């Protein structure tokens, strides 16, 4: 993939979507890659939709229109589905499979699409996709929030970015609080380990 890459990231409040955005942007800067990043929409309360962008390779603005993203990172599958409008035809998707139902679904007022429907929509738009149970694996490692680095680990190990997995490891050690480094390194490594088995197509 070109060094000029546009990434759209989405999840729900409490998952660490903006933390992942900031970390990836700092990793890019540390690797000498020009980067702009921005928040499209962020809800402070847990459970609200959070959307952000990272543009690598010399873009002037973090603005991202529909159909322009090369990569979509979805930290929750329903938000991945909603975020597909930003993905260009033939782009790439990395998504968690762990559902965090919105309040309207939890209250029984609405029914959310199932994972099969999300995967089919991704197949219709993307050239390849990886689906990983990020939150579940994060809990296994000791922190649900470290699931964001499972997804980042898979992304950085995929060869799609102008820097690799080792740059992410270095970034976690450098930019994350010391008490969170070990669990997030383990999370990133878990993402790298299951990259091949998590590929949808």
Automatic annotation (TrEMBL):
The keyword Transport does not apply. The keyword Cell membrane does not apply. InterPro entries: IorB_Oxidoreductase, Pyrv/ketoisovalerate_OxRed_cat, Pyrv_flavodox_OxRed_cen. Keywords: Oxidoreductase, Pyruvate. GO terms for molecular function: oxidoreductase activity, acting on the aldehyde or oxo group of donors. Residues 13-193 form the Pyruvate/ketoisovalerate oxidoreductase catalytic domain. It comes from the Bacteria. PANTHER family: INDOLEPYRUVATE OXIDOREDUCTASE SUBUNIT IORB. This is Indolepyruvate ferredoxin oxidoreductase, beta subunit.
């Amino acid at each position: 993939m070109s060094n000029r890459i546009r990434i759209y990231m989405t999840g729900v409040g409490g998952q660490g979507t903006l933390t992942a955005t900031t970390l990836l942007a700092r990793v890019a800067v540390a690797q000498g890659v020009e980067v702009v990043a921005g928040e499209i929409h962020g809800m402070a309360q847990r459970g609200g939709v959070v959307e952000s962008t990272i543009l690598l390779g010399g873009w002037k603005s973090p603005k991202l229109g529909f159909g322009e993203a090369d990569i979509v990172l979805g930290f929750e599958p329903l938000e991945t589905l909603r975020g597909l409008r930003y993905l260009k035809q033939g782009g790439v998707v990395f998504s968690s499979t762990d559902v965090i139902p919105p309040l309207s679904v939890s209250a029984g007022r609405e029914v959310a699409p199932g994972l099969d429907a999300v995967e089919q929509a991704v197949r219709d738009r993307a050239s390849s996709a990886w689906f990983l149970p990020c939150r579940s694996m994060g809990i296994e490692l000791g922190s649900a929030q470290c699931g964001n680095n499972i997804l980042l680990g898979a992304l950085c190990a995929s060869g799609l970015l102008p820097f690799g997995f080792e740059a992410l490891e270095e970034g976690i050690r450098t930019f994350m609080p010391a008490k969170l480094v070990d669990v997030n390194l383990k999370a990133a490594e878990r993402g790298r380990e299951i990259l091949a088995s998590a590929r949808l197509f």
